[in-house]
Amino acid sequence: MSNNEIEKYLNTLEQGLAEAEKLMLQEKANRGESVINSDENGNIIRVPASEIIEKYPQFQ
């Protein structure tokens, strides 16, 4: 596999993961659910999916 093919594969994979994450957040927001995340100190927190969508435009 050439470097160009690897780069193209990785870009496709990254785009697919971003799309899946967006869809997951939208579905969770529609159901009023939260996602598990961590804060700056590594503590586990629950964040409403709708809050993440509002804060980060790439998920809208």
Describe the structure.
Helix 1 packs across helix 2 (49-55). The protein has helices spanning 3-30, 49-55; strands at residues 34-38, 44-48. Strands 1-2 form a two-stranded antiparallel sheet. The protein is of the alpha+beta class and 60 residues long. The chain starts with a helix and ends in a 5-residue tail after the last helix.
List keywords for this structure.
60 residues; alpha+beta; two-stranded antiparallel ribbon; 2 helices; 58% helix
Which structural category do the helix and sheet elements fall into?
alpha+beta
Biggest sheet features: 2 strands, antiparallel
**Rg for CA atoms:** 15 Å
- How many beta-strand elements? 2
Summarize the structure.
This protein is of the alpha+beta class and 60 residues long.
Write the layout of secondary structure elements.
Elements: H1 3-30, E1 34-38, E2 44-48, H2 49-55
Antiparallel strand pairs: 1-2
Helix pairs in contact: 1-2
